Amino acid sequence: MNSAQYFSQNKLPLKEVVAGARMWGVGLENTLLSYFEIEPNSEFPMHSHENEQITLVLEGDLFFRVDDREIKVGQGEVIALPANVKHGAFTKKKPVKAVDAWSPVMEKYRS
User: Whole-model pTM?
Assistant: First the structure.
């Protein structure tokens, strides 16, 4: 497609991806933006993927496990994960809202 695409809120329904986490994703050929709402005490298990991932936390505190350490990413903060880096993410007492940028596109997150 060689034209701009507009997505109204009703075209961005949230879908569950893991227990306690719902999201939508909008992608072009090479880039994907995803939005997540994550309940307290939810977890994305340890994993890796060929996609680069940049996460911006909009609300709450999102915790990442990377290289045997725990990294707290708070509101307005960003974590950048290169391709194939093993990581997991989880919430504690607060719900979280966050956006991710992906390259190449993470097909399973495309709406």
Answer: 0.93
